[in-house]
Amino acid sequence: MGKTIYLDNNATTPLHPEVKKTLIEAMDVFGNPSSMHSFGRIARKKVEYVRETVAKFIGAVSEEIIFVGSGSEANNTVLSLFSCCSAKCGHPIKCTTQIITTSIEHPCILEASKCVADRGVDIKYLKVDKYGKVDVDELTGYLKAGGVGLVSIMYANNEIATIQDIKRLAALAHEYGALFHTDAVQAVGKIPIDVRDLDVDFLTISAHKIYGPKGIGALYVKKGVPFCSFIRGGHQEKGRRAGTENTMGIIGFGKAVEMRAAEMKGEHERFMAFKARLKEGIEKNIPDIRFNGHPTDALASTLNVSFAGAEGEAILLYLDLEGIAVSTGSACASGSLDPSHVILATGVDVEYAHGSIRFSMGRDTTKEDIDYLLSKLPGIIQKIRGMSTAYIGGRHGK
Amino acid sequence: MENNEWVYTEKLKEHFMHPQNVLSDEDKTVYDGKGIVGNLKCGDQMLMVIRVDKEKGTILECKWKTYGCASAIASTSVLSQMVKGMKLEDAYKLSPKDVTAKLGGLPEHKIHCSVLGDKALRAAINDYYEKNGMKEKIVVEEAKIICQCMNVTDHEIEHAVLEGARTYYELQEHTKLGTVCGQCRETAEKLLQEYIAKHFK
């Protein structure tokens, strides 16, 4: 295969070359950060340096950062806090009667919610409008009714890129005495984030979405907010997350954050120009499409498009044969019958939902990549529609 | 990136890249039988048309269209080649297994994408029988209700198996079968094993 173009940066990102260099050096840092000897002290120093780097990047202080194994772990940790119903437990966070989240969260929140619901917590899923924005009135209604312990709303959606007004939503939750968590995995490193300004209680970060290594993330927990560890059996992370620190991952994470801080500026404009080019190219050359997500309150690097009459997995694989990597909300790619819960939640017709493709750009994406994609995509869609029962003679839905 | 590391078999890739016997929109041929199965809501639909040698009772030509994924496209393409020259009676008996064998296999979670082709083919043959006064040859695939309480049929059990159900519990998750009186459990478990054997063994 010749040319390859990676447009699936919301799934994961390639390592930043600087992160790679740092990781190679970090391989020699083998000491256990908990050890008192010189080997341990060297590792500890590095871990704490990264904690400060990550904290600073989001406007927090070091002690508010807990390193975890993934964004999913951070999210599971937060939800589990509110479902401990043991009478013996003296912890201030007791079994909450209600948790509010949304219908477009990442599966780790949705699946963890189901489990928490089985333990007796009432979970409500907020509806979203056609652009993927949560219904503020619905949230206000639940909060007014009382009994809400936690509101968890993702910052930027991984599939359709819609950004929520987290500051306003957190303020609303606090007004009614509920704590607020945001899964900011897709937002951190793409848009500026200041936890003090947002005034959230918990915030989830993942390293591999920002050109860092996989298997490492962080949970921000605001000072003074009650917390109880999800993984037990060690004093690491001040007793908030047991398990010997993933030193190498943490060091790589730190470098990735540093590089983001240095490179984020100017990136937004570049992505906006690429996205406009891609949108225009698609609109001009392919009929019967729709763009998903919010037209303005969305990540600049992500474009989600539905193609009527063309099935998503087929689009993905024809693009793959041309060396272009994208992702789809199609059911067939996942092996289930239901297309993306996010696209469906925005009220898109199923036949459009089955044909949705996400293009997510990254720091390596060039204008030439977009043009190469645009040179292949119309032909592929035409080919699929040519053999589609759902798209006969240019009329879909037949 | 190596070409041989593709997600499905080489054979499937070949048919996906160059689908055979696709029914073109400009095709003005009058076909002898036509079948449409599946629906867009489920994400896959199949249209199949056949031309029949009425004296020999064989398929002269088989063309298709599908709203489906790579596995659906490739398995239909292969099927359309397989049935050319085949006696109607033999074509009628083709199963998804025969098709996936030709493709060199499919991952388990994609088997359900290949089951529409032979169904559409039978529908097309039935249509031909109907139009040519051979109604007696049509085998009616009537669904039988297994779970009376929840109104679940044997077809739905088969569908659940194709969707991944392997145990009675998973079958219940898919269909809600046996969640009221539970009397159908024995029959359902027997059918479950039969369908697993039919599609996956």
What does this structure look like?
The complex is a heterodimer of chains A (398) and B (201). With 398 residues, chain A is of the alpha/beta class. Chain A folds into two domains: 17-263, Aspartate Aminotransferase, domain 2 (3-Layer(aba) Sandwich), CATH 3.40.640; 266-390, Alpha-Beta Complex (Aspartate Aminotransferase, domain 1), CATH 3.90.1150.10. Chain A has 15 helices and 15 strands. In chain A, helix 1 packs antiparallel against helix 9 and helix 3 runs parallel beside helix 4. The longest helix of chain A has 20 residues, at 38-57. Chain A starts with a strand and ends with a strand. In chain A, 51% of the residues are buried. Mean pLDDT of chain A is 93; it is low at 393-398. Chain B is α+β, with helices and mostly antiparallel strands and 201 residues long. Chain B has two domains: 7-137, Sufe protein. Chain: A (Alpha-Beta Complex); 145-200, Orthogonal Bundle (Arc Repressor Mutant, subunit A). Chain B is 41% helix and 16% strand. Chain B is built from eight helices and five strands. Chain B has a three-stranded antiparallel sheet with strand order 1-2-3. In chain B, strands 4-5 form a two-stranded antiparallel sheet. In chain B, helix 6 (154-162) packs across helix 8. The longest helix of chain B is centred in the middle third of the chain and has 16 residues, at 116-131. Chain B is globular, with a radius of gyration of 18 Å. The model of chain B has no long low-confidence stretch (mean pLDDT 88). Chain A binds chain B through residues 1, 4, 309, 311-314, 317-318, 320-321, 323, 330-333, 335-337, 339, 350-351, 354, 386-393, 397, and chain B through 1-3, 7, 13, 16-17, 19, 22-25, 36, 40-47, 64-73, 109-110, 112-113, 163-164.
